[in-house]
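Researcher: I'd like a candidate sequence for this fold, 416 residues long. If you have to choose between options at a position, lean toward the conservative one.
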């Protein structure tokens, strides 16, 4: 009995030592710092591709449109005016920072901060399911082990570009929703629901995870005899008031600019207003699926002669998004419950919607759009409650090294 107790105490002190949380953060920060140095990331400047900075300046001037056209940016053209064609929420922190930084907020630093803030949230989610060691391992390598590293730390003037800010903040807010909605305490629940609404204001498809969040909230509540409809009306709807107000504000902003609460401007990009150019279509799915399955180390002369992989439209999702394979393997090894099925269904729908986009992100390292799925993939993996063994740790760490080298090569061959 004493030997068993000692072994349990020793194991608990090992895998659940609080130091693992800091080591996981240090690992993520080391990858970020290395990528920033090798990519020559401009972390403390206002990116020339930061459309949100321009939108914040327009807001301070009382305008919803930009004063001039900037051809290198993806600007929507509507009724002769030029608008930022991305959901507006990432403008809010920049707008706030511009009051104390008149010369502009550092775009590249923002995406780095968003990426690093994802870690403690992901770690806390993990601690509900696995040990501190496993949480630190999975949280850190999920964030810096694939294409998301290049989103957080891009090269040169692309650091903090409009696309990267939207994805990084959207991912952070989605993780906050996964952490807060099922968590204890009314305040945490309130901010969790608000976070998913704001995540939709960064990346609209993040709303796909709301059914799973409702289920997770139901599972977190003490058992009672209330009908599900009564429970939903009493315990969920009151927390949706603030998210509904946020959604209403975003809808109003869209209506003021484009005459529709659901239109944030992407459909008015010149590339989609030309005849025959459809932003979303089922016919794009098999084409994009083929592209993201293309292997590296094959010569693609039409894209970038001599490059070790394609520089546009995606490649090797099985290498550049290792959490996709890791979560899928984890699901195969157990009997899925209702929550697993809801989450898996959301992920499949999310993937199909992303693949239906005509450009699928265009110029990018790896499969950038799939980064939007990382919160759901990480939670699906954590729900198995299985501690990562040596093969899984080696798999994630090796691919983290591959993707660190990959993002550096990507910018070297791109010339950025």
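Model: Candidate sequence:
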């Amino acid at each position: 009995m004493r030997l068993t107790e000692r072994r349990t105490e020793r194991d608990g002190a090992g895998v659940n030592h609080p130091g693992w949380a800091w080591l996981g953060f240090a690992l993520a920060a080391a990858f970020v710092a290395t990528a920033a140095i090798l990519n020559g990331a401009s972390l403390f400047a206002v990116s020339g591709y930061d459309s949100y900075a321009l939108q914040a300046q327009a807001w301070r001037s009382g305008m919803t449109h930009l004063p001039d056209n900037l051809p290198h940016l993806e600007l929507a053209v509507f009724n002769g005016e030029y608008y930022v064609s991305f959901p507006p929420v990432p403008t809010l922190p920049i707008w706030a920072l511009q009051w104390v930084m008149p010369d502009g907020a550092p775009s590249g630093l923002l995406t780095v901060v968003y990426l690093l803030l994802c870690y403690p949230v992901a770690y806390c989610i993990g601690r509900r399911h696995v040990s501190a060691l496993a949480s630190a391992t999975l949280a850190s390598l999920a964030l810096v082990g694939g294409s998301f590293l290049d989103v957080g730390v891009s090269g040169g003037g692309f650091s903090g570009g409009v696309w990267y800010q939207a994805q990084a903040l959207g991912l952070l807010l989605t993780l906050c929703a996964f952490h807060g909605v099922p968590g204890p305490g009314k305040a945490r629940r309130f901010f969790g629901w608000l976070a998913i609404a704001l995540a939709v204001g960064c990346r609209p498809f993040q709303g796909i995870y709301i059914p799973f969040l409702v289920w997770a909230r139901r599972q977190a509540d003490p058992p009672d005899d209330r009908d599900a409809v009564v429970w939903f009306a009493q315990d969920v709807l009151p927390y949706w008031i603030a998210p509904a107000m946020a959604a209403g504000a975003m809808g109003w902003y869209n209506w003021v600019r484009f005459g529709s609460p659901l239109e944030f401007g992407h459909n008015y990009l010149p590339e989609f207003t030309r005849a025959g150019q459809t932003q979303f279509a089922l016919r794009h799915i098999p084409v994009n699926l083929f592209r993201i399955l293309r292997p590296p180390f094959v010569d693609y002369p039409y894209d970038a002669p001599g490059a070790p992989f394609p520089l546009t439209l995606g490649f090797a999702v099985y290498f550049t998004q290792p959490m996709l394979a890791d979560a899928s393997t984890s699901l195969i090894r157990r009997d899925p419950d209702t929550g697993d099925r809801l989450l898996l269904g959301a992920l499949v729908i999310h993937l199909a919607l992303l693949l239906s986009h005509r450009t699928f992100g265009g110029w990018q390292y790896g499969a950038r759009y799939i980064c939007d799925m990382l919160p759901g993939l990480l939670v699906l993996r954590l729900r198995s409650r299985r501690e990562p063994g040596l093969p899984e740790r080696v798999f994630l760490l090796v691919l983290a090294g591959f993707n660190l080298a990959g993002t550096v090569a990507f910018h070297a061959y791109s010339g950025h």
